[in-house]
Amino acid sequence: MKKMALQGKSCIPIFILLSLGSFCRSDDQLTNAKPLSSGDTLVSKAGDFALGFFSPSDSNASLYLGIWYHNIPDRTVVWTANREDPIPTTSSPMLAISNSSGLVLSDSRGRATWSTKNNITATGVAAVLLDTGNFVLQYLNGTIIWQSFDRPTDTLLPSMRFLLSYGAHYAERLVAWKGPDDPSSGEFSCSGDPASPDIQFVTWNKTRPYYRMTVSDGVSVNGGMYVNNGTRTTVNIGDLFYFMFTISNSSDFMRIKLDYTGKLQYLSWNTQSSSWTLIAEFPTAPCDLYSSCGPSSYCDFTRTVPTCQCLDGFEPDGNNASRGCRRIAAIKCGTPSHFVPLPRMKIPDNFLHIRNRSFDQCEAECSRNCSCTAYAYAHLKSPGAMADPSRCLVWSGELVDTGKYQEAGENVYLRLSDSPGDVSDAVAVRRNRKLVKIVLPTVACSLMLTCVVFVMIYKYKGIIDKDSCLQNST
Ligand SMILES: *[C@@H]1O[C@H](CO)[C@@H](O)[C@H](O)[C@H]1NC(C)=O
Ligand SMILES: *[C@@H]1O[C@H](CO)[C@@H](O)[C@H](O)[C@H]1NC(C)=O
Ligand SMILES: *[C@@H]1O[C@H](CO)[C@@H](O)[C@H](O)[C@H]1NC(C)=O
Ligand SMILES: *[C@@H]1O[C@H](CO)[C@@H](O)[C@H](O)[C@H]1NC(C)=O
Ligand SMILES: *[C@@H]1O[C@H](CO)[C@@H](O)[C@H](O)[C@H]1NC(C)=O
Ligand SMILES: *[C@@H]1O[C@H](CO)[C@@H](O)[C@H](O)[C@H]1NC(C)=O
Ligand SMILES: *[C@@H]1O[C@H](CO)[C@@H](O)[C@H](O)[C@H]1NC(C)=O
Ligand SMILES: *[C@@H]1O[C@H](CO)[C@@H](O)[C@H](O)[C@H]1NC(C)=O
Ligand SMILES: *[C@@H]1O[C@H](CO)[C@@H](O)[C@H](O)[C@H]1NC(C)=O
Ligand SMILES: *[C@@H]1O[C@H](CO)[C@@H](O)[C@H](O)[C@H]1NC(C)=O
């Protein structure tokens, strides 16, 4: 964890640093003796990131404290402190370390518009901008008090751990900008699904789901998130769920951003063209929007232009499948039924997660309950809470917000009636459970180069101790 250690000037012992603070402040850090004022910037050691005050556009006379890439010509802001409370350009802002409030941003009249609210002794700490883009307030012994990586705005950076859930208590949220030049909180946000943060995360339009993505065994299995070559990290057991990506070559710039239009974008800096390359974007098609195909209809990504299609054994409810579909033969309690595997599916929403089941037990769970309409099963390589490597999902009622992928996705086992009227080609695989077992869900990540997004589960260490959790983990 060398990066977490205080990056003071190595030539000057700490006691001199304390007494002669103003003479030996290095560019990447802020101390009690040397605050940051209007025209100043901090630049991380290797020169990758800068922190300072910016105005989002020439026409907007507001100043924000932010972090951006130091060497990228068009300023690309990755973090903003005072997004709801800008400082007028006519008032010179100041970022300082204060005794009872931690880092404090104030205007020329001394009004604090933002602070990290840490009760500290100002002389015993420093704030350092790291080469990861993380701005860290820490004690001189390196213990972290506060870090910007724990307070993301609209962007995730490599090695940043985005907390999806802590037990049932707390989850972080990315909140998009309001407009291209307006850092204040917009309508779109993104977070772990409160109902099942360990399985899926959702982009919201205000309070309504806008787009949903499932994650499993650390790797996104729905649509995938494909970035440059990456590395996987070991996973511990506990009830903290993180979402994180890494890149193998740290000199490549890569970011995940929730755009103000609601798109979750995966961007990579292309040095040759000196521009950001869009690697992937979600949602990918109109029918990929949350539940846009209606019940029992899915967005078919195997077509050149993705369109809504009825699930096997279903027919359009109206003129076409974009308004939902209905069963050709109803399933009723007491009448025989079977399951058909639908391969490469986006896991539908509104499932019930049943813990600690084998594949057979998962199927039995659905078979014996006549209101169960489908099930899906995954064996997780990285068991989550309670060391349960199984992930048995069952549905009752209609399947919503699903899709069929070319390469990613999982098997969903759909219940259909045995009775006449069921003329689907599913008859061929009726009760062929051997086949069903062979086609176990695979974690697919082959659309682009390598899939490097994963959920990491860290042993519970308490909310306050989250920082030391970070320190122990690499
Ligand atoms: C700049 O943008 C902020 C945030 O939307 C807004 O409150 C402010 O009025 C704008 N200022 C000008 C001069 O347009
Ligand atoms: C902060 O607290 C220290 C120790 O309690 C004290 O010496 C110092 O004067 C205080 N600084 C400010 C700006 O209040
Ligand atoms: C800050 O910490 C000091 C010493 O630990 C304590 O005396 C003081 O009451 C605290 N202030 C607040 C606002 O919590
Ligand atoms: C670092 O210093 C702080 C404040 O003096 C203290 O609370 C913390 O325990 C120290 N951490 C280590 C690892 O020594
Ligand atoms: C977001 O929701 C509002 C209604 O709350 C709607 O008017 C708007 O079109 C939605 N935005 C998008 C991009 O779908
Ligand atoms: C990714 O990197 C590893 C070693 O870091 C290498 O073995 C592998 O071939 C690379 N994969 C791709 C797709 O570049
Ligand atoms: C990392 O990328 C830089 C430029 O993008 C390149 O010069 C360097 O050789 C790469 N390093 C590795 C280990 O691939
Ligand atoms: C299906 O219905 C929707 C809305 O009713 C319409 O926009 C779409 O063009 C229709 N598709 C076909 C293939 O008819
Ligand atoms: C999981 O189920 C097995 C039997 O199916 C049982 O022995 C085991 O105790 C269960 N584990 C948990 C954590 O519930
Ligand atoms: C059957 O499924 C329904 C809906 O999921 C559930 O409410 C009910 O408790 C289940 N019954 C049994 C016997 O598992």
Q: Please compute the radius of gyration using only Cα atoms.
A: 25 Å
Number of separate strands: 37
So what's the CATH class of the largest domain? Mainly Beta
Cross-sheet strand order for the largest sheet: 27-26-34-30-35-32-33-31
Number of helices: 4
Label the CATH architecture of the largest domain. Answer: Orthogonal Prism
- What are the segments in which pLDDT stays under 50 over at least 5 consecutive residues? 1-26, 217-237, 422-474
Q: Strand pairing plus helix content: what structural class?
A: mainly beta
Tell me the distance between the termini. Answer: 7 Å
Q: Please state the average pLDDT score.
A: 78
Helix fraction, binned, reads: under 10%
Domain count: 4
CATH topology of the largest domain: Agglutinin, subunit A
Largest sheet: 8 strands, mixed
Global geometry? elongated
Small-molecule binders = 2-acetamido-2-deoxy-beta-D-glucopyranose
Beta-strand fraction estimate:
35-45%
InterPro entries: Bulb-type_lectin_dom, Bulb-type_lectin_dom_sf, Pan_app, S_locus_glycoprot_dom
Domain Bulb-type lectin: 27-150
Domain Apple: 333-417
Catalytic activity: L-threonyl-[protein] + ATP = O-phospho-L-threonyl-[protein] + ADP + H(+); L-seryl-[protein] + ATP = O-phospho-L-seryl-[protein] + ADP + H(+)
Give a verbal description of the structure.
With 474 residues, this protein is mainly beta. The protein has four domains: 22-151, Bulb-type lectin domain (Agglutinin, subunit A, Orthogonal Prism), CATH 2.90.10.10; 152-283, Agglutinin, subunit A, CATH 2.90.10; 308-418, no CATH class; 424-465. The chain is 6% helix and 39% strand. Strands 27-26-34-30-35-32-33-31 form an eight-stranded mixed β-sheet, with helices on one face. Strands 3, 4, 5, 6 and 7 form a five-stranded antiparallel β-sheet that branches. A hairpin with a 3-residue loop joins strand 8 (94-98) and strand 9 (102-106). Mean pLDDT is 78; it is low at 1-26, 217-237 and 422-474. It binds 2-acetamido-2-deoxy-beta-D-glucopyranose (10 copies). One 2-acetamido-2-deoxy-beta-D-glucopyranose binds next to loops. The site of one 2-acetamido-2-deoxy-beta-D-glucopyranose has 4 residues, from loops.
